[in-house]
Design goal:
Largest sheet: 3 strands, antiparallel
CATH topology of the domain at 48-131: Sufe protein. Chain: A
Order of helices and strands: HEEEHH
Shape: rod-shaped
CATH class of the domain at 48-131: Alpha Beta
Structural class: alpha+beta
Radius of gyration: 22 Å
CATH architecture of the domain at 48-131: Alpha-Beta Complex
Length: about 130
């Protein structure tokens, strides 16, 4: 039995179409999960004055955005925050949120306009560092 070239090409096109549909559905689910994770992120009140001196590493991941930070505390104050890794969509501008955190000496500061999701992820990474959570 011989299969015509036209049938083979039609099968390949149909197969690629179905793969595309499946990939698209998976991608849309991942985006929805990411948006929900960012929206549900909450912050605990941490009294930085009670955090022991030291260098703390923390991270936070919501799939499309990830941050890993190094936080240095001296004499009950955050003296430096280094971003060790920041995987972001268009959220590079959010990295300036660390200046606000150090200035206000609290984690839940205003997000950087235009980079809200990355700001949230960086702030949560700082919180996780100070709480000793990965």
């Amino acid at each position: 039995m011989r299969i015509s070239r036209k049938k083979v090409i039609s099968f390949i096109i149909l197969f690629l179409f179905l793969v595309g549909l499946i990939w698209g559905a998976v991608y849309l689910k991942n985006v929805a999960d990411y948006k929900r994770a960012v929206k549900e992120t909450s912050f605990d009140e941490i009294d930085i004055a009670n955090v022991s001196d030291g260098i703390y590493i923390g991270e936070y991941d919501v799939n499309f955005i990830y941050a890993k930070v190094e936080v240095t505390v001296e004499d009950g104050k955050i003296v430096s925050i280094n971003i060790l890794e920041h995987r972001h969509e268009r959220g590079k501008a959010a990295e300036t949120v660390i200046d606000k955190i150090m200035e206000e000496q609290k984690i839940d500061v205003d997000a950087i306009s235009g980079a809200t999701n990355s700001s949230i992820v960086i702030k949560k990474a700082v919180e996780n560092a100070l709480k000793g959570e990965p």
